[in-house]
């Protein structure tokens, strides 16, 4: 399965970066893999005024500026995201990547009339995997409705193939986990991705 791994963390020495390396090592022997490390490449997440004005009427303006990312997204059948959960969602750079790369004519076709849903341009995505960490305890994340998970497994997932399989791997309580907790989580990620 053609797999695109998207990583978003500023520190190459972080636990999150270790998860990214683990994901690549687990997937590469079995699948063709492309990797995007947003911070390492200095991706610009800012949707400019010019781009916002052109967003619906001339999305090719943005598409040309992020062409390698669009091509990787259209190539993929399996999307893997590796990122920390900050303020109950993905880092702003990853959110900006979604806004600048998942464009009209790429990820979706805009609705033609009021009350109509956009049409998907991403039915080629057959699998979604998210590997994330977060500082809050799991019980608190559940109480507030698990907003980060909802973004990926409901809102984005709606654009994918009807039978798209979803895997969500999250280590909670990052501010208090032990070295053993981190090791167990890395092993879990390696096992899960290695079995896909």
TrEMBL record:
High-level lineage: Bacteria, Pseudomonadati, Pseudomonadota, Betaproteobacteria, Burkholderiales
Family, per entry: Belongs to the NAD(P)H dehydrogenase (quinone) family.
GO cellular component, one term: cytosol
Keywords of this entry: Oxidoreductase
Domain Flavodoxin-like fold intervals: 1-176
A molecular function GO annotation: NAD(P)H dehydrogenase (quinone) activity
Protein name per Swiss-Prot or TrEMBL: Putative NADPH-quinone reductase
Residue stretches spanning the membrane: none
Taxonomic source organism: Variovorax guangxiensis
InterPro entries: Flavodoxin_fold, Flavoprotein-like_sf, NAD(P)H_dehydrogenase_qn
């Amino acid at each position: 399965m053609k797999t695109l791994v998207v990583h978003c963390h500023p520190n190459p020495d972080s636990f999150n970066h270790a998860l990214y390396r683990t994901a690549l090592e687990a997937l590469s022997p079995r699948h063709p893999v492309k990797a995007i490390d947003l911070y390492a490449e200095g991706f610009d997440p800012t949707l400019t005024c010019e781009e916002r004005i052109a967003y619906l009427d001339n999305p090719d303006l943005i598409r040309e500026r992020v062409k390698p990312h669009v091509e990787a997204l259209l190539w993929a059948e399996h999307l893997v995201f590796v990122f920390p959960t900050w303020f109950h969602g993905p880092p702003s750079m990853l959110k900006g990547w979604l806004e600048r790369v998942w464009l009209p004519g790429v990820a979706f076709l805009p609705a033609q009339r009021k009350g109509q849903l956009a049409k998907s341009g991403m039915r080629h995505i057959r699998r979604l995997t998210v590997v994330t960490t977060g500082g809050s305890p799991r019980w608190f994340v559940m109480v507030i409705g698990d907003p980060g998970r909802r973004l990926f497994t409901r809102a984005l997932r709606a654009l994918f193939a009807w039978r798209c399989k979803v895997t969500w791997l999250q280590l909670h309580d990052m501010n208090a986990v032990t070295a053993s907790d981190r090791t167990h989580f890395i092993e879990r990620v390696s096992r899960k991705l290695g079995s896909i």
